[in-house]
Specification:
alpha+beta; D-Maltodextrin-Binding Protein, domain 2; 3 domains; six-stranded mixed beta sheet; five-stranded mixed beta sheet; 19 helices; 18 strands; about 40% helix; globular; Putative aliphatic sulfonates-binding protein; signal; transport
């Protein structure tokens, strides 16, 4: 009995010793859940446990224990503070706060790496400027002398400065710019305490969707690229390159899943963040407002360089950070290779998530993305697609006559090529009676004049679309 007890004790001691000797590796990731274009580097990876799927389990990692920690932030600045303090290993943020992340690390005698893009727009869509819903202002040109709020040092701040400079204004004298976080700006817009507000994904579309703001400027008008991406502590990446590649593989998987089932995962994002699925789909669905893309296209490299220079001019940093020293694409290239994907081919691919569908009203294949419209019906898991706004609105009339409720109608700006919330858009007919959608009233007016048509708002186009559809 004594020998048996001794052996059992030795076995227990050996097991405890082996366990204590096994390495525990922390993987601490900072996310921005409400910045929904970070979803494939944060929220979806976390909720679907995709990182666990790709973490290395052999070789030097055979007996490793992983301590995966997730922390959510509402903006990039506090996330950066935690990274610099070595409390986080990874982070996701946009180009402007990402530049401050790189500069802050250098100031602390450290280094961070911009690993990859997660989602963005090479023409700048996604960021925008809104006004209170009851405002008479229809364009940036009408904001002279007004008070405009924006989260300072954000990608939206850069957008606002470009938009005002394009007017030839002195931003120190011709407007008053104040700093305001999204949650504060929402209340200010509702109370008419500010004349306009510039913000990043998704707030320039979320506020209009919720009915208390109207978008008067989209980043696509600037034709200046913007993106959100993933960063990592450089020392961490050097020590654990396989884990960095695993994280990026998880992002690639998250991208594949939401591309295949955008409605399903738009609902998941809504459940976690409270940001309505309709707004998530606006960005992540086919022909979305931005494109999910992990590759470092030249436009995104330039966007990062511009943000670094702009923030230096704003005296937000004085480091010698450059886009070339900040970006390191070896990890994302390795992730693509491990996933059986061609990174160089993706670099050349500028296509949005394609829409391969038939018109829900006519059954004919949809061929022209410039006139696509979409309707999401309450209780239906999938969005309906249409070749034209007139077909969509004709079907909306039937849907509502059947006692069903429409969650949202999407249209596409004829000139900018961006997806719009139809109830926020302007429409113009042409001589043939076809309807085209536009973000701005001036653009709709110009189209109507050039094509012998007329301008319609959302209410008017709903009333006429059924007749126009039957005449096609």
């Amino acid at each position: 009995m004594k020998i048996t007890s001794l052996l059992a004790g030795l076995a227990l001691a050996f097991t405890a010793g082996a366990a204590s000797a096994a390495e525990t590796i922390r993987i601490a990731i900072g996310t921005q859940d409400t910045t929904i274009n970070c979803a494939t580097g944060g929220l979806l990876v976390r909720e679907l446990k995709l990182l666990e799927k790709y973490l290395p389990r052999d070789g030097r990692y055979k007996d490793v224990q992983y301590d995966i920690q997730w922390r959510n932030f509402t903006s990039g600045a506090p996330l950066t503070n935690e990274m610099v303090a070595d409390k986080l290993d990874f982070g996701a943020m946009a180009d402007f706060p990402g530049s401050l992340n790189g500069a802050a690390h250098l100031k602390a005698g450290k280094k961070s790496i911009f690993l990859s893009v997660l989602s963005g727009s090479t023409i700048g869509s996604g960021n925008g400027i809104v006004v209170p819903s009851g405002s008479a202002v229809q364009s940036v040109a009408e904001l002279k002398g007004k008070q405009i709020s924006v989260p300072f040092a954000s990608t939206a701040h850069g957008l606002l400065l470009r938009a005002l400079n394009a007017q030839g204004w002195d931003v120190e004298r011709d407007v008053t710019i104040v700093t305001q976080a999204p949650e504060v700006a929402g209340s200010a817009l509702q109370a008419n305490k500010i004349d306009a507000h510039a913000n990043f994904v998704p707030f320039a579309d979320l506020f209009p969707y919720r009915g208390f703001a109207r978008k008067i400027y989209d980043g696509a008008q600037s034709n200046a690229a913007t993106f959100h991406g993933a960063l990592v502590n450089a020392d961490y990446a050097k020590k654990y390159p396989e884990i960095v590649v695993a994280y990026l593989r998880a992002s690639i998987e998250a991208d594949r899943l939401i591309a295949a089932e955008p409605e399903k995962y738009s609902e998941l994002i809504a459940k976690v963040t409270g940001i309505e699925a309709e707004v998530n789909y606006l960005f992540h669905g086919p022909l979305g407002l931005q494109t999910r893309d992990l590759s470092w296209k030249p436009e995104y490299r330039q966007a990062l360089a511009t943000s670094i220079d702009t923030l230096r001019l704003l005296k937000r940093h004085d480091s010698d950070l450059t886009a070339d020293t900040f970006i390191d694409d070896q990890y994302v290239r390795a992730a693509f290779k491990a996933a059986g994907l061609d990174y160089d081919a993706q670099l050349k691919n500028y296509d949005k998530l394609a829409l391969k569908a038939k018109d829900a009203l006519t059954g004919k294949a949809i061929e022209d993305p410039k006139r696509v419209a979409q309707v999401w019906v309450q209780g239906e898991p999938l969005v309906r697609h249409y070749a034209s706004p007139e077909n969509a609105f004709a079907d909306v009339k039937k849907i509502e006559a059947a006692g069903k409720k429409v969650r949202v109608v999407f249209a596409h700006d004829r000139n900018l090529g961006i997806k719009l919330l139809a109830n926020q858009a302007w429409f113009a007919t042409d001589a043939k009676g076809q309807i085209n959608a536009f973000l701005l009233k001036d653009a709709a007016t110009a189209w109507a004049q050039a094509n012998k048509g007329k301008v319609l708002d959302f209410a008017a186009v709903r009333g006429q679309a059924a007749t126009l559809a039957s005449a096609q």
